[in-house]
Amino acid sequence: MPRHEQLASQLDPSGTVLLTVECQQGVVGRDSALPELAAQARSSGALENIARLVEVAHAAGVQVIHAVAERRPDGRGAGSNAPLLRAVARLPVQQHSGSRAVRVAEPIEVADEDIVVRRLHGLSPIAGTEVDALLRGLGCRTLVVTGVSANVAIPNAVFDAVNLGYTAVVPADAIAGCPPSTPPR
Fold first, then answer.
1. Amino acid 86: pLDDT
2. Cα dist. 24→11, 29, 165 in Å?
3. What is the per-residue pLDDT for 84?
4. How does DSSP assign the chain, residue by residue?
5. Distance from C-alpha of 180 to C-alpha of 150, rounded to nearest angstrom
6. What are phi and psi of 96, to 5 degrees?
7. CB-based burial label for 163 (10 Å; 0-12, 13-18, 19+)
8. Please, which residues bridge with residue 67 across strands?
9. Rounded CA gap, 123 and 159, in Å?
10. Spatial distance between the Cα atoms of 43 and 24, rounded to a whole number of angstroms
11. What is d(CA 79, CA 104) in angstroms, rounded to the nearest whole number?
12. What's the pLDDT score for residue 130?
């Protein structure tokens, strides 16, 4: 089967879910805690491409899940077992639950039928969250993974998805990371 036919069969709207990862104001927005990452997400076109994918998913009836990372103001539930997690606690813009920082960033539109999943710990938008149960309940077979960061949360999401039995598709122009890199084709 030619590659485009195989991809088309994997992206049947009834069995596909689009996942946006950490596409939130405090990460990729104008007041980001990680300005280099936000700049890369914007300058690379990834944020616009994610917004277009979300728009197309909505039009095609594909379920969209937005995975955001947040912390309670008191830090309860947040991990500190890795240098990256400890560094997050010291960032100038905190991703506090309920704050503007954890809202999905423009230009990505959140529709009424979208699901927003919040995590308080870890580096993966899937492991330790309700995402897997939601995907199973939605009849997902293929998970399209978009967002940031190309060197932390995106690989975590892909590994978790594959290990849980899903087919993972990562549009190379809908992810960003720091330092910027060109994903293998």
1. 84
2. 25, 6, 27
3. 79
4. --HHHHHHHHT-GGGEEEEEES-BHHHHSTT-SSHHHHHHHHHTSHHHHHHHHHHHHHHHT-EEEEEEE-B-TT-TT---SSHHHHHHTT-SS--BTTSGGGSBPTT----TT-EEEEESSSS-SSTTSSHHHHHHHTT-SEEEEEEE-TTTHHHHHHHHHHHTT-EEE--GGGEE-SS--PPP-
5. 8
6. -75, 140
7. exposed
8. 21, 117
9. 12
10. 16
11. 23
12. 97
**Tokens for 1?**
């089967």
pTM of the complete model: 0.92
Sign for the pseudo-dihedral over CA of 45, 51, 55, 57: positive
Residues of the chain with pLDDT under 50: 184-185
The string of pLDDT tens digits covering residues 39-93 is 999 999 999 999 999 999 999 999 999 999 999 999 898 888 888 788 878 888 8
User: Does residue 59 contact residue 125 with C-beta atoms inside 8 Å?
Assistant: no
> Which residues are CB-neighbours of 105 under 8 A, at least 6 positions away?
23, 24, 25, 27, 28, 29, 47
pLDDT computed for residue 83 by the predictor: 83
